Structures are given as structure tokens and as C-alpha cells.
Prior knowledge:
The structure is a single chain. The chain is of the alpha+beta class and about 450 residues long. The chain has one domain: Outer membrane efflux proteins (OEP), CATH 1.20.1600. Helices cover about 65% and strands about 15% of the residues. The protein has helices spanning about 1-15, 25-35, 40-60, 105-170, 180-215, 250-260, 260-280, 325-395, 400-435, 435-440, and strands spanning about 20-25, 65-75, 80, 85, 90-100, 220, 290-300, 310-320. The protein has a four-stranded antiparallel beta sheet, with no helix packed on it. Helix 3 (about 40-60) packs antiparallel against helix 4, helix 6 crosses helix 8 and helix 8 (about 325-395) packs antiparallel against helix 9 (about 400-435). The longest helix has about 70 residues, at about 105-170. The two termini are about 55 Å apart.
Amino acid sequence: MRKTILIIAVLLNFLPCTTFAVEYSLDDLYGLALERSETVKIAGEDTYISMREKDRAMAVLIPKLSAFGSHTKYSDQKKSNSSVIQPENSTSWGLKMDQSLSVSGRELTALKIAKTSIVKSRFDYDSVKEGYLLNVASDYYGLLKAKKALEIANANVERLTKHRDAAQTRLRVGEITKTVLLRAEAELSGAQSDLIRAENNLKLAKVVLARTAGISGDYEIKESEVKENNLPFDKEGLGGFPADCGLSSVDCLKQAALSERNELKSADLDRNIAEDQIRYTRGLYWPDFSVEGVYSRREDSPSSFFANKESIYGVLRLDYPFFEGGLRKAEVRQSEARFRQADYRLEDLKKTINVEVEDSYLNLITVSGVLEKLKAEVEYARDNYNAVSKQFQYGLADSIDIIDANTLLVTSEREFANAQYDYQFAALQLRRATGTLLETVVGR
Length: 444
């Protein structure tokens, strides 16, 4: 038994250590990014900070309880007849409960602002997540393009290698001149250099996607199947939007964006906060009302018979600064200016979003229209290359013809591959522009 275990252990030591790369789909990358991205975590901390700001605003409305104490040592004792005027030392301590509020209710306004800020920060958080998901998708499709470019470069090298070999064969039998072979060698060298660039571009694209999605170690990606709910439209119109939002009109998409974009919701709340801030600063013109309840005790050494050792009292105070150098007026004017800024910012954002929607919409229409043409171009270019290649073998076509046919095939394949991924990414861009990308990703 021991010999068997020893033999197995020795064999395991000589076996190669095999590691398997993890394979991710686009949905998997979305999940990783939302979980590991520092950008998303920073936005989440902003939400937490706004919640704690509400706690601070609430704390102002709750009375404060404090304790105090002091010990005083005098240089000498002073008496008047038999009574002590100044003791050698004195100790005092006590408890105080106090509350100060503005007659205008500024504290309640501050609490309302803090609660609104929490909702605003959540919209900002969702907006950051949407933007980051689009970045993940961009890097994902960039990696797919790099992989496809490498496949095309490899196929190009194989074709040109066969063409070079055919040229060598025909040169040996005297059917062509040496310049044809030299041209074939030059084209092959250029294709090999393109292959090296494609390999390096693929490595860089993997590094970029790993950084964006938070991937550590080696990995691979798989091309996700395009589902109907991934695209912003189907046979009946725009998926996820009302049926009257057909591809013939972009107005409904703009209306959807104005109601769904988290940036607009945040900007609208920012405007409301600025309006409440005006009310808050105008409260400075009202007096502050404070209430105090105090218990204090004093112990002197030596003690005096007439000294008051213990007292309980309450204080009502009304404070109103009549002159403060124009500070209140300046703060109110600042708040009014910030409100106007928030209003302008909201209107400007609406116009910007309308342009984003139209740009994304037209881009999607353009790519979808070009895609079918490029698909046909690839088929024609492939048939053309095959035909010219056979003609070259039988001496019915020269080297220039086959090189031109190969260049057309390579160019059309690259453009078609890029258009395929551009179409899928354009669909996500339109989702982002209309504010439905995060909902689509989470709802899958």
C-alpha cells in the first residue's frame, strides 16, 4: 500500500501543472465590474455619506445633554468676620440639557435637504453604474474585435503563403518572372507584420478589459448570444418602450430619456435642494430660540455657611443679531444664484440628452443598414478571391489580380467584423442614452 501511494506521489510530481483560464460572458463581466470596480464603490460611499448627513441634520433637532466640572485653587483664603469670602479651593460640577432652534424652522429645512440628497446620491450612483457598464461593454467588444482581427490576420498569412508557394512553383517551370515571386514575398511579409500587431493589440485589449472589469489572472471571453431584449428594437418597435416608438420617429425615445435618465432625476433634485437652500439661508433673518436646564453643585474648602452648594435652574433665551455687516444678505444672494445655476444646468442637460439620444439612434440605424451591405461584400470578395486564385494557378490571372482580390477580402472581413460588434454596442449606447441600460442588465 505504501509503495502504491509513493508511486502515485512521484507521478503527480512529474505531471505538468495545468491551469485553466476562466471564461467570461458579457453578463459575467457586468457582474464583476459592479462588484469590484473602485469607481462604483466610490459612488456607493457618496450614498453612505449622504445618509450620515441626514443623521447629522436629525441630531440638531435632539436636545444635547452635557456634563461640566471645574476645580479652582486660590492663592490664599479670605474671610470677612466669621464668613469665608474666598476659599482655598473650590470644586463645581453639574449637568446641562440645552436645545437651540431657529424660529424660522431652518433645522427642519436642513433635514429635508439631507433627505433629498440621499435620493439624489442614489440616482448619481445608478448613473455611475450605467456609465461604467457601458465602458465594460466597450472594452469587451474591443477585445472581440481584436480577436477577430487576429483570426483575419492569420487567415491572410495562410492565403498569402499559399500564393507565395504557388508563385515559386510557377517560377521553377518558367511560367512567371521573379518579380511576381518578389511581390508575393513582400505581401506575405506585410501580412506577417500585421499579424504581429494583431497579436499585441489582442494582449493590450485583454489587459484593458481586465482593468475595467476587475479581473485577476488569465481569462478568456466568449461571445454572448444576441438576444431580442438586448437590442433596443424588435419587429413590433423599440423593445422596452411603448409600441408607438417606432424606428421612424425619435421623439418617443427622447421622451423616454427625459423620464428615465438618472442624470436628469439627479439634476432635478439638485434644483429642489437649491430652492430649499434659499429658504434655509433666509431663516438667518429670524431669531434663534434656545432652552437650557441646568443642575449644578459647588463644594468649597473651607466651606461657607452662606454659600449655595446646589442649584437647579432653567434659561430661556432669544438671540437676534441686528447688524452683521451684510452677511445674511450675501448668503441669500448666493443661494439664489445657485438656484439659477441648478435651473440652467437642468435645462442644458435636457438638451444634451436629446442630442445623445438622436446621435445614438442615428448611429444604430446607420450601422444596421451598413451591416447587410458589408455581409454581401464579404461573400462577393471571398468568391472573387477563390475564382482569381484558381485562375492564377492555371495562368489566367496575374499576381496583381490575386493580391487585389486578397486585399479586398481582408478589408471587407475586417469591416464586417467591426460592424457586427459596433451594431451590438450601438444598441447598448441607445439603451444608455435613454436611461434603460442598468434596468436591462439587472433585469436579465
